[in-house]
Amino acid sequence: MVKAVKLMLAVTLTVFLGAICFLMVFRMPTAIFIVYMALALVLVNRIGSRGFIIVIILGTFLIRLAYVFTVNTPLDSDFKLLYDAAVLFSHGDNSFSEEVYFQEWAYQTGYIIYQGLVIKVFGEAVGIIALKILNCLWNTGITLLIYLIARNFFGEKPSRLASVLYSGFVFPVTFVSVLSNQHISTFFIMLGLYFMLDRRVIRLKPLYRSLIAGFLLALGDIMRPDSLIVMASLAVYFFVLVLHAEDRRRKLVKVVQGLAVFLVFLAVTSIASYAIRESGINDQGLKNNNFWWKFVVGLNYESQGRYNDHDYNLIYGGGKSAEERKELEKELVRERLGINPLKLANLFLHKVQNMWCENALDWSYKHLLESNSVIDLFFNPVKFTDIDAVLKDLNELFIYTSMILSLLGTLAWRKALMDDGLLVPVAILAASFVVYLFIEVQPRYAYMQQPFLFILSGAGLDILYRSFDRFSLKQAWARLRDFMKHG
Fold first, then answer.
1. Can you give the pTM of this predicted structure?
2. CA separation, residue 263 to residues 181, 197, 287, 462 (Å)
3. Which residues are paired to 105 by β-bridges?
4. Measuring CA to CA, which residue among 361, 400, 360 is closest to residue 384?
5. Distance (Å, rounded) from C-alpha 248 to C-alpha 74?
6. 154-190 pLDDT, tens per residue?
7. Calpha distance 227→243 (Å, rounded)
8. Which is higher by pLDDT, 32 or 266?
9. Residues contacting residue 233 through CB under 8 Å, at least 6 positions apart
10. Over the stretch 26-37, which tens digit does the pLDDT of each residue have?
11. Which one is predicted more confidently, 195 or 15?
């Protein structure tokens, strides 16, 4: 009787879980994800190193290129403002710099020059599509660098899989159609860190590595000042290297190496700012003349740390002087930091959700959603809202998979994560998490941090690969038969 009850419960539970799994698998996003990962495993396991590099470059680039030519994302918001300024610059007209936006946030000028040069070379008629194709190239480079950096710390196959996982990640696939400075900036930041961390391909002395890394990180900062978080993380990295150095001579080498990175970075960014100012492109160079603005928006409880018109009109309305705006911003920051601690904690939770868990796909195809477009998919008319639902679910599967794998590797914290070099991606993510608790958040702002999350997912994948290597199907079958026989 007891055995019958146990059997009935086991059968019921099996049917229940089986039905749930069946429904999950045959949801369109889950099915696509499973098929993609199955193909990724075949690619990772059946191809040589050189072949893999070729495939990951071509595959990543062609996926993004196909999207760019399929979805014609119109210019919108700040991206239109920046592009229009770049068009003026391409004609030798620097009048854009007189606008309040480019006086306050002059650091955007570096990206305007980049876009303006592309427009000048390819012509205004194809300037937008040329910039989008370059975005595809920058993001393809990011995908390759995930693999090249990860394999310094993890096995070959986990590193490949981390890169392939990012290659299919929906957000960067769609975001290349948006003329954001995040693409080129993130590429140069990651390339600089690659020169700093790689031990398998680059055969340079530590000092030369540091000089090149500092220069590349400066290029990334000129395009978008995300490098400040990276530089803070590198300070932590070099501090640990100095502590771990065995003798005084090695400590000195690490100190010199760190100073080289920071001095080159400061020199290049300062020279670029000086050149922009002296050439008349923007008399503010690459300055950020409104440091407190991001904090004003980021600490707004009502808007949950997002951009909002109320704060903009409050600061920039009424013809206030720059000094008056600055004082008002400081007062607002003090006031908003002084709210009830529970309310502040609630704001932080909402911001974490917004920054790290929500998606930014609408930046690419918002126009299709707003127009209730119908797409011919395999000769069948499909509402774009349905496609949007699938893409957003698929996007979550990719990002949450990378988060779970990173968490698995972090919790294990064994040999795979003991390499000092891994302090860099860990510190970048940790510093970003803290900083964005206080400043303005948008889901797209996580673009620079996400590649480092996928690099760290290699730690979890490495643990899984090692576990499967020890797993024997024969032993598992023998144990199952023994269990069925003896109970």
1. 0.89
2. 24, 18, 18, 36
3. 288
4. 361
5. 58
6. 989 999 999 999 999 999 999 999 999 999 999 999 9
7. 24
8. 266
9. 423, 424, 427, 428, 431
10. 567 888 888 788
11. 195
416 band by pLDDT with thresholds 50, 70 and 90: very low
pLDDT at residue 479 in the model: 57
Q: Dihedrals φ, ψ of 337, to 5°?
A: -75, -20
**Is the Cβ–Cβ distance between 34 and 25 less than 8 Å?**
yes
Sign of CA dihedral 165, 417, 239, 201: negative
Q: Does residue 331 surpass a pLDDT of 60?
A: yes
Query: Quick one: three-class SS letters along the chain?
Result: CHHHHHHHHHHHHHHHHHHHHHHHHCCHHHHHHHHHHHHHHHHHHHCCHHHHHHHHHHHHHHHHHHHHHHCCCCCCHHHHHHHHHHHHHHCCCCHHHHCHHHHHEHHHHHHHHHHHHHHHHHCHHHHHHHHHHHHHHHHHHHHHHHHHHHCCCCCHHHHHHHHHHHHHCHHHHHHCCCCCCHHHHHHHHHHHHHHHHCCCCCCCCHHHHHHHHHHHHHHHHHHCCCHHHHHHHHHHHHHHHHHHCCCHHHHHHHHHHHHHHHHHHHHHHHHHHHHHHHCCCCCCCCCECCCCHHHHHHCCCCCCCCCCHHHHHHHHHHHCCHHHHHHHHHHHHHHHHCCCHHHHHHHHHHHHHHHHHCCCCHHHHHHHHHCCCEEEECCEEEEHHHHHHHHHHHHHHHHHHHHHHHHHHHHHCCHHHCCHHHHHHHHHHHHHHHHCCCCCCCHHHHHCCHHHHHHHHHHHHHHHHHHHHHCCHHHHHHHHHHHHHHC
Distance CA 127, CA 204 (A): 38
Alpha carbons 365 and 17: distance in angstroms, whole number:
37
Report the C-alpha gap between 66 and 138 in whole angstroms.
Answer: 15
- Quick count: other Cβ atoms within 10 Å of Cβ 435? 14
Q: What would the pLDDT profile of 111-154 be if each residue is shown by its tens digit?
A: 999 999 999 999 988 999 999 999 999 999 999 999 999 999 99
N-to-C CA span, the chain: 15
The mean pLDDT of the chain is 87
Q: What's the pLDDT score for residue 244?
A: 80
